[in-house]
Design brief:
This protein is an alpha/beta fold. The chain has helices spanning 34-38, 63-67, 107-116, 125-142, 156-165, 179-194, 212-219, 235-248, 260-264, 270-273, 286-297, 326-336, 347-350, 373-389, 403-411, 421-433, 443-447; strands at 22-24, 44-47, 50-53, 73-75, 88-93, 121-122, 150-151, 203-209, 231-234, 280-284, 306-310. The chain has 3 domains: 3-75, Alpha-Beta Plaits (2-Layer Sandwich); 80-350, no CATH class; 369-447, Electron transport complex subunit B, putative Fe-S cluster (3-methyladenine DNA Glycosylase II, Chain A, domain 3, Orthogonal Bundle), CATH 1.10.15.
Amino acid sequence: MSPTDFYHTHPITDGEILTHSVTLDVTKCKGCTTCLKRCPTEAIRVRDGHAVIENARCIDCGECIRVCQHKAKKAIFDKLEDFADYKYKIALPAPALYGQFEGATDLDLVLSALVDCGFDDVFEVSRAAEIVSEYTRKFLERNETLPHPIISSACPVIVRLISVRYPLLVENVLPVMPPIEIAARIARKEALKKHPELTDGDVAVIFISPCPAKVSYAKNPIGIETSAVSGVLSIGEFYFKMLSAMKKITEPTVTAQSGIIGISWAGAGGEASALFNEKYLAADGIDNVIKVLDEIDNGNIRNLDFVELNACSGGCVGGVLNIENPYIAKARLQTMRRYLPVSLNRVGDCRLDNYEWEHDLEANNVSTLDGDRHEAMRKMREIVALTESFPGIDCGSCGAPTCRALAEDVVRGKANPDDCIFLMRDKLRMMVDKGEINCKNCPKNKANPS
């Protein structure tokens, strides 16, 4: 079975088909609406007693996995065994991986464990992060006319969130490939140079991920046609195998090539602080991110050069595929980087042909009501009128996250106004008052006249 077979594609209602990593186990879902209210793009509805994820709106942030008390949401990812047929396997450890292990104060110990777990080589994503930091500094210097503030493109959740909810800000997104992609391309290129007997198809470059968004990125890359990442493993899934290997290591054999800047990318603010520019802002946690994007979209933030946004609280250390508490992981990383140099990697060292996107980011048209402008305006007026007719308490009992979302679903033909239990209650009372319904004739009341 190929790695692709493990991925689940949600049923399509609008937009292009995307291969997502966040999926739903219907047998465990209770239809409790918790995920419904937490989804930042309103991609979830409750229908027929369970949640339904709309493909085109899902950005694989993993927030529904984080809040689901019934463990009905989960991330689909690869396993190392899926790549057994490849002759050469390269591990791409995320910087967040280093903070997962108690007592591990040496980067080399973590990297050596990856080799002992079955990889032929290791390329640190933190190395690529240092390259991206330098490239971003130079990019900002020579592109002063770009819309400001420029928003980091390192977190795929943020980029897809902007595409879905903030179409006017797509031009503000930094058109530079993220460290995961840069690392994969350099690692693949170095492996083929080091081992001329190998072909490109012999090499598997596998990312060890703290979040489901990176799993989806490998299948649906942003700004480029095809990712150099062959597959993505979960830190949480691979953790115990690594822990067992680390206990057997007496002398690490792999020498880390990352500095403070690269390791710092694991936590919120690490990317922005590496730009050596005081005019920046860093925010983490999806709620805080949305507040910042609202302010930028409204034109209230203008005096900044760069904005770093992380969907997970604390940054990548807060990803749902991690094992360790993000604050503990971040404290361990601070200890690890204490004696590291500032940076060990420069743009000129890797000699990649290009670091920037191959094509521009486009706004997701999932929110478009109609291709005809006049018809879209009519539907918008209908949505406004329907929203005003609802109680406005956003209870979620109708299966939509807000009253306005229900109104939009009704206009799109996906729901009925009677799905609102308050409107249905008022309607039933009116029918009883008019004598259209005689409660005394109900079978239940006949059996219990009182």
